[in-house]
Design goal:
Length: about 350
């Protein structure tokens, strides 16, 4: 596709100038001007691992740009059997027939060769590039797509941290990579409102889809891009999510609601020795139960919190499918008075 675009561009420009030289108007002149203002197709190395990167990779593949190679982390143990599982980008690159290499931490990063591309695009790669890679492309820099409004939420979990903090907005930032994580100069940003009922998976997919056209637009303006330094004093961290972040402690109904929405279906709590997951819930505000936090209040699975209460609408047992609270209670007893932890 890149070669076809170059051919069509050349034909339009040559024809336009031939018409002008002959002293006659050219129908190709506007097209030639438009192509002159746009950047030529680029040779791009793509580095990504997580599902967030998939729309950007797919959009690049459909564009006029040439993907020289895709780099992704090698298959990792996953699931209860700990079998090796390829990343989403690994599978996508193979489906698209793109050149693919595995590159993770340590010596594997030595396999990343960016000298043969014009630009490297890094999206949810999961590995910090060594300084030598950052200036290796012919343009002398690498572009990174990050799902937050930098400098807010620098780190590996910006979507989750924004939801847990109750932010009203987040977005996507395109930056130039530096040797400090997520601290590079900003190319452009796009804001996105966070609705009160939005879940982590839904926000993830929205931002992933919105990042693709942002990336293509930036690449089309590559010669005219400007860079704005971040306000480093305003930076906030988005550290890696742990199991403790996903645990419901019943201290506050608002926070419990955020945890369930952010991590559905993996927010969890304990009933005795069994770990259960809360998949969906409805927060009940302005309630004062005067009960021990974690106490089941009724047959509708309303649970007391230190501040407010929350009704569990859907749950999941280990190794089972999620189900509504009513269906869950038909096979699992959580009568009023039960204390969850």
């Amino acid at each position: 596709m890149a070669a076809q675009t170059r051919t069509l561009t050349s034909i339009a420009v040559v024809t336009a100038f031939a018409d002008i030289a002959a002293g006659k108007p050219s129908p190709f002149f506007p097209l030639a001007c438009a192509f002159a203002l746009m950047s030529a197709p680029l040779r791009i190395a793509f580095l990504g691992t997580a599902a967030f990167a998939q729309p950007c990779l797919t959009a690049l593949h459909k564009s006029a740009h040439e993907i020289t190679r895709v780099y992704t982390k090698p298959p990792q143990p996953a699931g209860r059997g700990r079998a090796l599982r390829a990343s989403v980008i690994d599978s996508t690159a193979q489906d698209l027939g793109l050149p693919l290499s595995h590159a993770g931490r340590g010596d594997a990063l030595d396999r990343v060769d960016l000298a043969d591309c014009d630009l490297a695009v890094v999206v949810a790669f999961g590995v910090l590039l060594p300084p030598g890679c950052l200036s290796a492309p012919r343009l002398g820099w690498c572009l990174n797509v990050h799902p937050s409004l930098l400098p807010h939420w620098r780190g590996p979990a910006p979507i989750e941290r924004a939801l847990l903090a109750g932010e009203s907005h987040t977005g996507v930032s395109l930056i130039r990579l530096t040797d400090t994580q997520d601290a590079g100069p900003i190319i452009c940003q796009q804001r996105r409102a966070i609705e009160s009922t939005m879940t982590g998976p839904a926000l993830h997919d929205i931002l992933a889809q919105e990042s693709a056209p942002m990336l293509l637009d930036a690449l089309a303006r590559i010669k005219a891009l400007t860079f704005t330094e971040q306000d480093h004093a305003a930076a906030t961290d988005a550290p890696k999510i742990t199991s403790a972040d996903r645990r419901l402690t019943w201290k506050d109904a608002t926070q419990a609601d955020r945890i369930i929405r952010t991590f559905t279906p993996r927010a969890w709590f304990m009933h005795g020795t069994e770990r259960l997951c809360a998949v969906d819930a409805h927060m009940i505000e302005n309630t004062s139960t005067h009960r021990v936090p974690g106490t089941v209040l009724d047959d509708a699975l309303t649970v007391a919190c230190a501040r407010g209460s929350i009704q569990l609408k859907a749950l999941q047992r280990p190794g089972r499918a999620p189900m509504t609270a009513a269906a869950f209670l038909r096979g699992y007893r959580l009568p009023p008075g039960t204390v969850l932890s």
